[in-house]
Specification:
CATH topology: Hypothetical Protein Ta1238, Chain: A
Number of strands: 2
Number of helices: 6
Shape: elongated
Number of domains: 1
Low-confidence stretches: none
Strand order of the largest sheet: 1-2
Structural class: mainly alpha
Helix content: 55-70%
Mean pLDDT: 96
Strand content: under 5%
CATH class: Mainly Alpha
Largest sheet: 2 strands, antiparallel
CATH architecture: Up-down Bundle
């Protein structure tokens, strides 16, 4: 089986549901940034040793695939999606933020990334999550995004920050 289809050679791509958009479309930029974020979290995962942290990052990657699928869908595709980010996913991130910030302690100064590889990768992932959030905010001006995915991406950057701080002080 070939992984190339040649259907995108003219600058368009298919959304889940069948419609086609330009590859420069903000929808494509948004889910492409989520894909980049998933990959960078994978780099952090490869460096982190703690089981709890590895499990959390893997869970986040799966949830980001759900979020990305929603962004990559047209109206028909949205109706076909079985798994979507829900309130429980957001609450889980909030619990993780509280857990890791309690261990890391109060923030007393700006954090300069680079203390170790695992925290540095998490800080890069955090900045990619912030870019994804900016893209989604722009996209939300033209097509209405569900509140849950907007809240999730906002909490995610905070969660990645909290885990990065933990990796710096553990």
């Amino acid at each position: 089986m070939n992984i190339y289809t040649k259907t995108g050679d003219k600058g368009q791509t298919a959304l889940f549901g069948g419609s086609r958009v330009k590859k420069s479309d903000l929808k494509v930029e948004s889910y492409g940034t989520i894909d980049e974020l998933i990959s960078f979290i994978g780099m952090a995962y490869a460096e982190i040793e703690g089981k709890r942290e590895k499990d959390l990052l893997r869970k986040i990657q799966v949830e980001l695939f759900m979020l990305g699928a929603e962004l990559a869908s047209d109206e028909k595709g949205l109706e076909l999606l079985k798994d979507k980010i829900q309130k429980e996913h957001i609450e889980c991130l909030e619990n993780e933020i509280d857990h890791y910030m309690e261990i890391a302690g109060p923030l007393k100064e700006f954090v300069i990334p680079g203390k170790n590889k695992s925290s540095a990768y998490l800080h890069v992932a955090r900045t990619i999550a912030r870019r994804a959030e900016r893209n989604m905010t722009l996209l939300d001006e033209t097509i209405s995004l569900r509140e849950e995915i907007k809240k999730y991406i906002n909490r995610l950057s905070d969660c990645l920050f909290a885990v990065a701080r933990y990796e710096e002080v553990k």
